[in-house]
Amino acid sequence: MLTNAELAELAAIPGPAHELERALFCELEAEHPGGHLAQAQAAGDLEWWLCWQPGTRELVVPDLCPATADGGDTVCTLPLAHPGAHSFGLAAAASPNSSTPA
User: What's the pTM?
Assistant: First the structure.
């Protein structure tokens, strides 16, 4: 769950790409090592991601993964140096309820 301070920071971003969701779920491959990542907002060419693990969390604007598939038609939508599979390799049937909540 985003904190009130995180929601306020994200709400102040001009030209947001989508409505804010208080509940975020890790977008990385199941059973991945390390901390968790979830996109919280986007605007223009920037994306704000919540990074968390027990005892720590922060909003960051990371570089994005340059990996592509299908001759470059499909791009990975995860941050650079993410653990596990690229977003285009993750199971489409994965339920957010099975992911780690923020």
Answer: 0.85
